[in-house]
Design goal:
3% strand, 18 helices, 602 residues, elongated, 5 strands, 74% helix, disordered C terminus, single chain, mainly alpha
């Protein structure tokens, strides 16, 4: 109610002229103000709640101890005979975190919980007093307030994405989105908010099971044998994700061919059907093999749906607007991942894993209809095979090596960089005594800086630098931070590197799209096909990178320094191949030399 009143006041007293950005600002200001204001009553409610709980626990302990003392008094023991009772009562108090001490006193102590005892044979009265642990209450309330704050931040992030989508739909120009639209002229024909919103909703569906997928198989585990040999437990646990990634690797490649013929929308909708079938099958899987097959069915749809969503941002934007559209879509994906993983864990704790997969299927159905209703149906571009263009400097080559060089020297090292976030930081922080909650907060910061710092930076940076220059520069900056950390490692530095990677992750996907889009290779076979090939290799590298990175990190700081050196070498070689650094000699020789350097270093 306060929020509604506040928005009404802001709406009338702050000039906005019905401009989208100003209206968005008014709504977000209202949501943030109400979220922050809710922390104060939350603190008092939580404080009184934990204090009441502690007093109840104290009262229960006192009743037990009082019965023991009253039994002694009824047997003729006097209070004056009870000496050295501190050890006994301290043992009782230590059985509960909520109680700091229990004492035998003559009368109640202010601020404590007291229980009046019977009168002894001398007519003397006694009292048991328990002191509530203030440190316990402070710790619990502090943790609860932080969780409330994190929940508010997550809710605000979700609100921003939904708001951007709704404003794009309601305030943007009225457009035809169901009938096939021709955009062969490469104009911006869709609102950026809708592109970002659809990416967000799809990501929320895709990543909802991240928090519990690996746990499900442990719950339904039964020994599985192949050709008379039992599959080891550890290997079986990895098969759902490995199977999903492997199948999505194949369908990512096939999706390029399908999008080339049918367009992104039909391809994504087909992928969503497969994914929903897989999640529904996962809900009813009661043995390892059916569950693994269900996850492979999810992977089948994932390759088609994800690639279609990726193409969507490019298909409806001009080359000038492409950085903003692709960066916005990537921000929506990051926020969707950050929010839905936590939401999925909450749903699983309430409804169980089968129930969570059913809820996930329902969410997938909602996303399916969102794409069907609001995704612009853009005709596949007429991507006729063309002869590869010459380099800008007039130098011609028989074979354009830039696409394989991009896979080798940009995609592969960037996957290793992401392993710092997904693998190294959680393991390292845990070994340094950092709690799981604190690690989760750093991951939340990663999502925030990706969506709200890296994404806005992307269009600005692409106006200053070309994609072929910006990508290796980002790699060099991150390689330098890795190397510095390998020399003097501190948890705070590792957290800052995670934030730095988050900013880079808000920039890189967009400029990768731009780079691949402008390649003669893409002009020749078609952008959707080129992106499908990239998706194939990305999925393959994504499956192998965690294992390779884990082996490298067996060597500790030395392994991290080696990763930094290899990333730097890849960045420099990529610059040479793209003419960012003017070098002499044939580009093929440069590639060969670089491969020799990398293999030798490994």
């Amino acid at each position: 109610l306060i929020g509604m009143l506040l928005f009404e006041l802001l709406f009338h007293f702050i000039p906005h002229n019905y401009k989208e950005k100003r209206l968005r600002f008014l709504i977000m200001l209202t949501i943030i103000a109400v979220s922050l204001a809710s922390l104060l009553p939350s603190y008092f409610i939580l404080n009184s709640g934990y204090r009441a709980l502690s007093r109840d626990v104290a009262q229960s302990l006192l009743l037990q101890s009082a019965d023991d003392i009253n039994d002694l008094l009824s047997s003729g023991v006097y209070y004056s005979d009870m000496k050295d009772t501190d050890e006994y009562f301290n043992g009782r108090a230590s059985s509960s975190d909520q109680i700091s001490s229990i004492e035998l006193t003559d009368e109640p102590v202010p601020g404590g919980v007291s229980q009046i005892l019977d009168t002894d044979g001398e007519g003397k009265e006694g009292c048991l007093t328990a002191m509530v642990s203030e440190s316990f209450i402070k710790g619990k309330v502090g943790t609860a307030v932080i969780n409330t704050l994190i929940t508010s931040i997550t809710a605000i992030m979700i609100s921003i994405e939904i708001l951007i989508f709704l404003l794009g739909l309601l305030i943007g120009e009225r457009r035809e989105r169901r009938r096939m639209q021709d955009n062969s002229s490469h104009q911006t024909i869709e609102e950026a908010g809708l592109v970002r919103g659809i990416s967000f909703f799809f990501s929320a569906f895709r990543y909802m099971s991240v928090a519990f997928m690996s746990i499900v198989l442990a719950e339904i585990y039964k020994p599985v044998s192949v050709l008379g040999h039992q599959i080891p437990y550890e290997i079986l646990m990895s098969l759902p994700l490995s199977g999903q990634v492997f199948i999505s690797m194949i369908t990512s490649y096939l999706s390029g061919l399908v999008i080339h013929k049918r367009g992104w929308k039909k391809t994504s909708l087909m992928g969503m059907i497969f994914m929903m079938a897989g999640t529904l099958a996962s809900a009813f899987a009661k043995a390892p093999i059916p569950f693994i097959l269900a996850q492979m069915l999810v992977g089948t749809g994932l390759g088609f749906a994800k690639m279609g969503i990726d193409i969507y941002a490019v298909a409806v934007s001009s080359e000038e607007d492409m950085p903003a559209y692709t960066a916005g879509a990537n921000a929506g994906i990051i926020v969707g991942f950050s929010a839905s993983a936590a939401l999925g864990a909450l749903i699983a704790s309430i409804f169980g894993y089968s129930g969570a997969y059913i809820v996930m299927t329902v969410l997938g159905l909602a996303v399916f209809f969102l794409i069907l209703s609001f995704g612009m149906n853009v005709a596949p571009q007429d991507e006729k095979e063309e002869k590869a263009e010459d380099d800008k400097d007039g130098e011609t080559t028989g074979i354009d090596l830039r696409f394989p060089a991009y896979i080798l020297f940009i995609i592969i090292p960037y996957f290793f960089i992401m392993m710092f976030v997904d693998y190294f930081f959680p393991v390292y922080a845990n070994s340094e005594g950092i709690t799981t909650d604190a690690i989760g907060y750093v991951m939340l910061v990663y999502g925030i800086v990706t969506a709200y710092i890296g994404t806005p930076l992307c269009p600005y940076l692409t106006k200053k630098m070309s994609a072929s220059s910006l990508m290796p520069v980002i790699l060099l900056i991150l390689a330098g931070s890795f190397f510095a950390f390998s020399i003097h490692n501190f948890v705070i530095v590792a957290a800052l590197i995670v934030a730095l990677i988050g900013i880079a992750d808000g920039i890189m996907p967009s400029i990768q799209f731009m780079y691949v889009y402008d390649l003669p290779f893409s002009k020749k076979i078609g952008f959707s096909k080129a992106l499908g090939i990239e998706g194939f290799f990305s999925s393959m590298i994504g499956a192998a990178a965690p294992v390779i990175f884990g082996v490298v990190m067996m060597y500790g700081n030395g392994g991290l320094a080696l990763v930094a050196a290899l990333i730097a070498v890849c960045a420099v070689v990529f610059m040479l191949l793209n003419g960012v650094i003017k070098g002499r000699g044939n580009k093929k020789k440069t590639v060969a030399a670089a491969m020799v350097i990398i293999i030798s270093a490994s």
